Amino acid sequence: MTLKLPDFTLPAPLASLGARLPQLPPSLALITALNLALGRMIPRAPLEPLIGKRFAIRVLDAGLCLRFAYSSRGFRPIFDAAQPDLTISAKSRDFIALLAREEDPDTLFFSRRLLMEGDTDLGLLVKNTLDGIEMPRFDPAKLAPAEILRRLRERLATPSGGI
């Protein structure tokens, strides 16, 4: 069962708070996920042109700006204030919709819900690379507490799934 993502915007005080919090923890979470996917779901070869490029992902309604770069060794955080080569901005709902493959980047871009600033050729390369990746569909329903408990009980019930 897949869940249709409702339209939402996080409350403005959350964005204000998020902008004041350290950005490194969520940046590290994103970088870790990207590096875990490298070679498994994301092939390295198409990423060659991204080596040395700096990126920022801005989650507008959460007040987050996740800054990172790509090198031959993988993704890494960036700490200085230098301008990124490409900044991609959207609301949290739109980023989740992209992950869930509920919306495509072109639709969000042309409806002005996904913004790209900086090197637009680089943005097009990133978009085309991501479009070519066969990723499992992100299903927010799998994050529901009842579903998590069901899967945990299932794992604990099998002899090899115990902790």
How does this model look, in words?
The protein is α+β, with helices and mostly antiparallel strands and about 160 residues long. It has one domain (about 10-160): Nonspecific Lipid-transfer Protein, Chain A (2-Layer Sandwich), CATH 3.30.1050.10. It has helices at about 10-20, 25-35, 90-100, 105-110, 120-130, 145-155; strands at about 55-60, 65-70, 75, 85-90, 115-120. It is globular, with a radius of gyration of 17 Å. The protein starts with 11 loop residues before the first helix and ends in a 6-residue tail after the last helix.
Brief synopsis:
This protein has six helices and five strands. With 163 residues, the protein is an alpha+beta fold.
CATH architecture annotation: 2-Layer Sandwich
Classified in CATH, the superfamily is SCP2 sterol-binding domain
Strand order of the largest sheet: 3-2-1-4-5
Class per helix and strand makeup: alpha+beta
* CATH-defined fold name: Nonspecific Lipid-transfer Protein, Chain A
List low-confidence stretches.
none
Topology, number of strands? 5
Q: What is the number of helical segments per DSSP (H or I, 4+ residues)? A: 6
CATH class: Alpha Beta
Short descriptors:
5-stranded mixed beta sheet, alpha+beta, globular, 38% helix, 163 residues, Nonspecific Lipid-transfer Protein, Chain A
Give the SSE layout.
Layout: H1 12-20, H2 24-37, E1 54-59, E2 64-71, E3 74-77, E4 86-90, H3 92-99, H4 105-110, E5 114-118, H5 120-131, H6 145-157
Parallel strand pairs: 1-4
Antiparallel strand pairs: 1-2, 2-3, 4-5
